[in-house]
Amino acid sequence: MADSANLATSLYEAWNRRDFDTLASLAGPDTEIVLVGSGETLRGPEGARKYGTMWADAFPDGSITIDRVIPSGETVAVEFTGRGTHTGDLVTPMGVFPATGKSVTLQLCDVYEFRDGKVRSQHAYLDSGSLTAQLGLTGQAATTQLQAGEQ
């Protein structure tokens, strides 16, 4: 069985390759992906696939650089930087953010719990304020963009 730090690293490598089959295969049937802040929870292999494609659809040129991996047994924290250009719709629990054409750089953190070589849980931490500011969707602009996406 691969160690937890290597399993975590392989998830980001798979996303960079847009290998959503690998993301799904590393999720167990009881996997929970919690988007901290919104409270949205995605479950199982299809939840893992949906979470990966959500970001890839919105940022087709997106890439992830792992900044630090902090393992502690079956638990692993990963700090990483995501970069990309928002050329597709970003579908979130807050609504749809239509493409803005703007580039973003985000500092992110995920905390994983692994069991039997699979993701048991993932808590994804995202600074949504930084994301919306970089996309130019703060204040009134965000409200207008979200309402346009709802129509």
Molecular structure report:
With 151 residues, the protein is of the alpha+beta class. The strands form two sheets. The protein has a six-stranded mixed sheet with strand order 2-1-8-7-4-3, sandwiched between helices. It has a two-stranded antiparallel sheet with strand order 5-6. Strand 5 (90-92) and strand 6 (95-97) form a beta hairpin. It is globular and about 45 Å long. It has a single domain, classed as Nuclear Transport Factor 2, Chain: A (Roll). The protein has helices at residues 4-17, 20-25, 44-58, 128-134, 140-150, and strands spanning 27-35, 40-43, 63-72, 75-85, 90-92, 95-97, 103-115, 118-125. It contains five helices and eight strands, in the order H-H-E-E-H-E-E-E-E-E-E-H-H. Helix content is 35%, strand content 40%.
The major beta sheet can be summarized as: 6 strands, mixed
Order of H and E elements: HHEEHEEEEEEHH
CATH architecture: Roll
Radius of gyration: 15 Å
CATH topology: Nuclear Transport Factor 2, Chain: A
Question: Which structural class do you get from the secondary structure elements?
Answer: alpha+beta
Strand order, biggest sheet? 2-1-8-7-4-3
What gross morphology would you assign? globular
Q: What is the total tally of β strands?
A: 8
- The tally of domains stands at 1
Q: Return the average pLDDT rounded to an integer.
A: 90
Measured by DSSP, the beta-strand proportion falls in 35-45%
Q: Which class in CATH terms?
A: Alpha Beta
Helicity, as a percent range: 25-40%
